[in-house]
Write a structure and sequence with these properties.
The protein is an alpha+beta fold and about 260 residues long. The chain folds into two domains: about 100 residues, Protein of unknown function (DUF541), domain 1 (Translation Initiation Factor IF3); about 110 residues, 2-Layer Sandwich (Alpha-Beta Plaits), CATH 3.30.70.2970. The protein starts with a helix and ends with a helix.
Length: about 260
């Protein structure tokens, strides 16, 4: 009887042994899986920056001449004299005829008002306005003339002068170059961060280019759609890129 019991126990032990081994192997595999999930691929996200100084190569300057007189013919005659004086001033200071664009004359009739402040049908005067736009590649000349235009006002000319606008027409020629400089800067920053953690930068995960910002010197102005300063002759073109790199262990990268 005891021999049968011992024999049964031995048989049960041998039958349960494969099950135990399978459980141990499954646990080991599960442990590896959990370890893999807990150790995702490391990445580094950085921003690269580059800027370049540019000098405007074209300028626009708008000014207008305004006159008024009780009679329309008198107003036109006065406007003609003042426009001739302005044209002479521009020509004597180096502005070419083809650089000047004269717009049609705007005429405004001003009516008298009664004692209650309401307009009547009696004409008080005619107001005429002639607008001029100058476009020149001599940006320094435009800068100087706009500052000296008050000399025309001293002659009795009612002149309204706007601030010149300065542009750079070769921006497309440097876009690729400055973008490359920003990308190099991003790579350098990523390498420094990776090196501090005992790793190296791997392939690029993704990259995003920001819009160019063209600002006046010492300006911090930026815009989501891109800043373009036109108030200064000298400007800075600024480029920013955002890049994410894989972080690779130094030992892994050598294999």
């Amino acid at each position: 009887m005891n021999e049968n019991i011992t024999s049964n126990r031995t048989a049960m032990l041998w039958l349960s042994l494969p099950v135990a081994v399978a459980i141990i192997i499954s646990a080991a595999i599960a442990g590896k899986t959990v370890e893999t999930i807990k150790a995702p691929q490391r990445t580094i996200e950085v921003k690269g920056y580059a800027e370049r100084k540019i000098v405007s190569d074209i300028a626009t300057w708008e000014l207008s001449v305004r006159v008024s007189a009780p009679a329309l013919a008198e107003a036109y005659e006065k406007l003609s004299r003042d426009m001739e004086a302005v044209s002479k001033y521009l020509a004597e200071n180096g502005i070419k005829k083809e650089e000047i664009n004269v717009f049609p004359v705007q005429t405004n009739t001003v009516y008298m008002k009664n004692e209650k402040g309401n307009a009547t049908n009696k004409i008080e005067r005619y107001s005429l306005d002639s607008r001029i736009k100058i476009t020149s590649g001599d940006v320094r000349l435009i800068y100087r003339l706009s500052g000296e235009s008050a000399s025309l006002i001293k002659k009795g000319i009612e002149l309204c002068s706007s601030y010149p606008q300065y542009y750079y027409t070769k921006l497309d020629d440097i876009k690729i170059e400055i973008l490359g400089e920003a990308t190099k800067n991003a790579r350098m920053r990523a390498a420094q961060i990776a090196g501090n953690s005992g790793a190296e930068t791997g392939p690029v995960v993704w990259a995003r280019q920001g819009v160019l910002q063209i600002t006046a010197p010492y300006s911090m102005d930026i815009s989501d759609s891109g800043q373009y300063d036109t108030s200064s002759i000298e400007k800075f073109v600024k480029s920013v890129v955002t890049i994410e790199y894989f972080a690779v262990d130094k030992q892994s990268s050598k294999k």
